[in-house]
Amino acid sequence: MNNHNRVWFISLFLACIMFIVTACDSSNAKRLSGVPSGSGISADTLSFELQRIEKQDGKRNTAANDNEVYCRCTYPVFSGGKSAALVNGTLQTWIADSTEIAPGDVYTGDRSVGKLAANFLEEYERAKKEFGNIPGYQFDLNGSVLLNRKGVLTVSLATESYTGGAHGNYGTRFFVFDARSGKRLAVRNLFKAGFEDRLNRLIDSRYRQMKGLSQTDRLDGEKGQLFENFIRFNDNVALTPEGVTFFYNIYEIAAYVFGPAEITLSYSDVADILKPEFMGL
Fold first, then answer.
1. Which of 3, 11, 49, 108 is 20 to 30 A (C-alpha) from 98?
2. If we measure between CA atoms, which residue out of 187, 160, 159, 42 comes closest to residue 91?
3. CB atoms closer than 10 angstroms to residue 109
4. Which pLDDT tens digit goes with each residue over 164-215?
5. If residue 132 lies in a helix (H) or strand (E), which one and from where to where?
6. pTM to 2 decimals?
7. Which 3-state string (H, E, C) describes 164-216?
8. Secondary structure (3-state) at 27
9. What are the tens digits of pLDDT across the range 107-153?
10. Vertex 89, ends 88 and 92: CA angle to 5°?
């Protein structure tokens, strides 16, 4: 074999090796992701962007303490397939049904967040025509993604609103999803069978620790501040990198003046009752 042929043969051999290596790497990447290329979603996470919608009345109501009239909504919108569509549907249905921009029973229009934000301002105009100079209506929605890995997604939707009265209202709602299916997970989906008593004791102990209460102090006393002499888990639960959090909104377990309560249990705290697939998120 002359030198020219030898160089050509070596170059061809190296090109074949590079093609095989590249093909193997590409195959492995698809297998690890578990999803079609370019889908925007991995096996463990959902892609998302924060959507912002703002509607504002340019005219201030100077006869009513110069209050602004606005509706501002920021919330995550997920992409990447059927599971993302189910998550979006759950979040946007809650916004449309369970917040201050939820329309009345007579409303038959579009229930998208943008349309409901516009309707919120229109409701203020109708109220102003009926009752005269009234304080401006205001609504803020702030959504955030608290956890998005290992097939588990946690979203927080926090609202603040004022539509008249002595004070405004505010609250936070958590949503935990199976990112692969888009199904919302309830408390019973996160914990092992028979978890209830153990979880209630952990929450009671953590609340007492937060308030500086002994095991015999009453929870409905001056320091405990609760309506009842007990505290139990509710359905407003989040899985976060820090652990399992339960959020109690105003009026739920205590008077408005005491505000909401947020109780977080570490993963080590709930290791004996949390299902193994949710440990170490």
1. 49
2. 159
3. 10
4. 988 999 999 999 999 999 999 999 999 999 999 999 999 999 999 999 999 9
5. none
6. 0.82
7. CCCCCEEEEEEEEEECCCCCECCHHHHECCCCHHHHHHHHHHHHHHHHCCCCC
8. helix
9. 899 999 999 999 999 999 999 999 998 999 999 999 999 999 999 99
10. 80
